[in-house]
User: Fold this.
Amino acid sequence: MVNKSLALLGATGSIGTSTFAVAAEQNIPIVLASADKNHLLLLKYAKQHNIPSLFFTGIEDPTLQTKLKAENPEHKIYFGETELIKALANENYDIALNAIAGSAGLRYSFAILKRNKYLALANKESLVMGGHLLTKMLSDKPIIPVDSELSALFQAIGKHPANEIQHLHLTASGGIFRDLSLEEFDKITPQQALKNPNWTMGAKVTLDSATMFNKALEVMETHWLFNQPYSKIKAVIHPQSLIHSLVEFIDGSFLAQISNPDMKLPILYALSWPQRVHSQLVQTDLTSLAPLTFREIDPKRYPMFYLGLEVANAGGIYPTVINSAVEAASFLFLQNKIPYLKMFDIVKRALDDQEPISEPDLETIMEINYQTYKKVLQQTE
Assistant:
């Protein structure tokens, strides 16, 4: 049993719904939960888990706001980003799990750490865009990663000091197009891209897995979470998604975390850390596992990954620009407004147009993020 109270942000996404399963098994009290607009699903979970405070950051219709409050008097219901940030600054909770999708998650991570609360982080963009800010806010509480690959590194590193680490190896499924002929890439449709061979995820994360941009984001996260130079961070395709990451030590040894691909396990570890608790949610039978294989990441198949590595080494404002540009280009592709291969060209153009800023503050990051997204949406020709 996990004896911690939880604030759950992004409760109606794939991470959020898995968190409810963990909370149910471990009797974790959820004191507040947020969603963007999916009030039907959040209210369903709120009644099941007796969540007192609910926040909807994307519902702006006054009529709907009044209706939701009137029909659900057993819950305190709030609307807008400001109210959620205020709650994170004042409500009583032990740990907050930030599973909000996209760049919107950064402000909430900032608010949680400012409160000196434990942050279980499933929002990649927080560290990608603001790692240089968030890591300076840490005191005695580390950021606990929820992404399966980052969680695997966190578990395998344990208390080993940084100078004992030779390399950190992130694994990737390779996405749905890992075996597709390159000649077929100009015919890829959104329906094809929204499939993943191993994981069930939201649309944006699934597409990022197909392009392997998600792995570039994880390289940036790894750099900030574990204070390792980019030269020590590597990535490899592991089609079975059973080994979630590996730590290579200076003596030649490797430590890896292995389990069936299910996000409930890293969520459970993030919420129970520094302990492990008994659970039946994810079970792995070694005798039934497929053979474990690895392959290099092909730059022709995954140019977005290698562009992301260039941006990681450039630093400054460029991680914000590439993240925002990919968000906007992904939206255009999923709306059938641009072809799959056009996404890379649009993102590269956004980076080329951006002037360098070496140490952007939070407001600069959010403004450049907004402006980049807006400009990219206009580039459909």
About this structure: The chain has a mean pLDDT of 95. DSSP finds 15 helices and eleven strands in the chain.
